[in-house]
Predict the 3D structure of the following.
Amino acid sequence: MHGYADDGFVVPDDEGSDFEFADPDELDEEAAKFVRETHQAVHDFDKWNPEDKQGKAIKKFVETMDYKATIQTDNVRVAKGKETIRTSRPPVKKRKRDD
């Protein structure tokens, strides 16, 4: 397993479940808050326009990783007959009970 201890925490890609966005409506309050904040941070990252060289390099690195992960996720989903999803566009919505 590429140097990881076989403790059940790290699983091979072919044994894991397909990527799906976490739904805060299905979680307890603390977990739902974390999911909403994380999904919002992903959207905020897209609006971030760094002006310094280091910030631009960091943003480019993250965008490249996202691009590669999206291709990998889409390939797995399409092979199983599922539609593609944009992993960098998580849903941002209020909890149903907050409406």
Summary: The longest helix spans residues 53-79.
